[in-house]
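input
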Amino acid sequence: MFSYLGVLISVIFGLALAHLLRGLSKLIQIRQTVRIYWVHVLWTFNLLLYVLGLWWGMYWWNNLQEWTTELFLFLTSYSIVVFVMSSLLYPAEFPADMDFEDYYYRNHRWFFGLLTLASVLDIPETLLKGAANLRAVPPQYVLFVPTIITIAAIGTLSRDRRVHALLAVAWLAAMLAYMNFSSLEKLVAR
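output
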């Protein structure tokens, strides 16, 4: 069953990555005429890292023997939320004179609202993997999840540019720390 679901999740995450990479590529190509906003670019990199991390984490489901419709729909829905969130960073087409700072703040509530939802959805996804003995929940997860949910919630509520700059950097630091320390723990355990 996982190979079937894995293909669907891979397509959805692949579309999210393709959208982010296409947007970033086009931004670079027309950089002379658009107004680039560094916080927006940093969130692009944050989401690239996030989607790749989620995609990697979904692989643990390959050892599950019995699948339910609810789990299938849950994991698919989680993937869709991540795709829609990714698609909010860049419009499908954008003019050569686009102001990305303005675009970012016009969409920030939706973006951070979906980021909050994705972060909350990660909790049952991770705990279910642990309950099914597919992967132990890393101890760092207890600190990581409240941190990213707090960042996402503040991003939803705030429009302050300094706060958003801090949130983008904090998210990157939290992601890199979690990925680094949860990986180091696995290496030490061997």
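quick obs: The first helix runs from residue 2 to 29.
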